[in-house]
């Protein structure tokens, strides 16, 4: 299963695909409801090595949560993936 590596880690051999990033993010779906809460995103960003994971989770939620329900669901994941990629985080398969 792919996993997220932080900015300071060696670059992966392959370019991450959207599916790899999605799989890596969804492993933080702790309750298995197929959507990510702010708390789950906070843990994901903590594992990414973010200096302020709560802020990154809040920004990620603002960026990706199109319907404002407080969760990033399957339809909103592409926006979250874009946000994570824009921060320079990569995925190692």
UniProtKB/TrEMBL annotation:
Domain EF-hand: 16-51
Any GO molecular function: calcium ion binding
Domain of life assignment: Eukaryota
Assigned keywords, A-Z: Calcium
Family matches, as PROSITE patterns: EF_HAND_1, EF_HAND_2
Protein's UniProt name: Calmodulin-like protein 39.1
Source species of the chain: Carica papaya (Papaya)
Classification lineage: Eukaryota, Viridiplantae, Streptophyta, Embryophyta, Tracheophyta
């Amino acid at each position: 299963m792919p996993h997220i590596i932080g900015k300071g880690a060696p670059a992966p051999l392959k370019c991450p695909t959207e599916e790899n990033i999605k799989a890596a993010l969804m492993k933080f779906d702790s309750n298995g409801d197929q959507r990510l809460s702010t708390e789950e995103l906070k843990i994901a960003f903590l594992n990414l090595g973010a200096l302020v994971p709560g802020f990154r989770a809040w920004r990620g939620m603002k960026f990706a949560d199109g319907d404002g329900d407080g969760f990033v669901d399957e339809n909103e994941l592409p926006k979250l993936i874009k946000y994570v990629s824009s921060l320079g985080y990569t995925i190692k398969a």
